[in-house]
UniProtKB/TrEMBL annotation:
Main location: cytoplasm
Residues spanning the signal sequence: none
Protein name in the entry: TNF receptor-associated factor
Gene Ontology MF, one: zinc ion binding
Subcellular location: Cytoplasm
Amino acid sequence: MIHAMLPSKINQVKVSQQTGCDVTIGIGRALLTSYIFPDMELEQQILSLPIRCIHSEEGCRWTAQNKLLQAHLSVCEFNVVSCPNRCSVKLLRRELPEHLQHDCVKRKLHCDHCGDEFTGEAYENHQGVCPEESMYCENKCGARMVRRLLDQHSVSECLKRKLPCRYCRKEFLYDTIQHHQQQCPRFPMQCPNRCGTPGITRETLMAHVKEGCSTATVLCPFKEAGCKHKCPKTAVGRHLEEATHTHLSLLGGLVNRQRLELRELRRAVEELSGSRDGTLLWKLTDFSQRLQEAKSRTSGSLELFSPAFYSHNYGYRLQVSAFPNGNGSGEGTHLSIYIRVLPGEYDGLLEWPFPYCVSFSLLDQSNPALTKPQHITETFSPDPTWKNFQRPRPGALGSVRGGCLDESMLGFGYPKFLSHEEMRKRNYIRDNAIFIKASIDVVQKILNS
């Protein structure tokens, strides 16, 4: 209700009417109720004023007289209302249909599968567990049935259900387990020799036939040596007794063949490890011990052999040898160094006799930062008439590392290359080792041609 006040009393403080309307005006005193009265004309003017909806900022476009506001708010889509299902949710009226249909936990719904009625929250819990819902088998066998029958199907009917193999206990699909049992390593098998041994499985059958079956036919234990005899396993012992001499003869032949194979393998390893650029750098370790061994010999001199090396690719095959305690005129006082030509793969393509200059060097191992190394170097050019540098006879060399040399093959070099006394004056021996370098001038010659 709209109230009006006499102009002369407008600065007064407070009025309290029997109708319960309190108005605070002025500065502290109560006005008499007779000074305030309802003003219906003013009320009609105010209620007839045009206004916008209180939710205009939220998007409502309603405009009308003030007196129609309450009626509009009862239908305004932007007005906040409570859910009619009393679910405690408050939301815009425009959102209410969506809420009632999908979100309200107290909405009433019927299950499409079993037909039972549920509230929204109970319906959500019911979904995914309804016993009458049609489901595909989770094993992807293709079968479809209501959920209440699914467990029984998975246990006893599904072709894709997993079952353990009764022999190896590994799990397989029902439709593949029979194929597995045709290959299962634990599947029980019968010995093909019908020996009657129990407990044989597919994985142990071959081992049983080869080693455990008493009736199996086996080869002689000396088959690698060449014995071709076959007999039951129980008769092997008698065969070994009767064929002792034959087996010894076969073993002797096998040893000879293996010796030749080892010789060829050793030669192949030396070929691969040797230099092919006309330079050999040979480190002799444990030099003091080898020198002492050479001095203590009562007959013959100790000769050490280097790995074989080539003058160049597809060139001459060569080898250096050294006598720590000397040889010939240098025996007992000097280090002797020689070179010899070995039978090579490409000898048929090369010029003979060997025509190139050879240089030997004993390397000074002094620190170059402290003193200039003084290497000892000797060089010679082969004389075409020397037998040492003629083409070697194929097969004349047994083992270059073992020293099994043909007596007709003699090295050429320096019996007095350097005295033991001179070797001790500088660092020719360091860390109990010496370095001997041999180089063939053919490399430089090829580059200049």
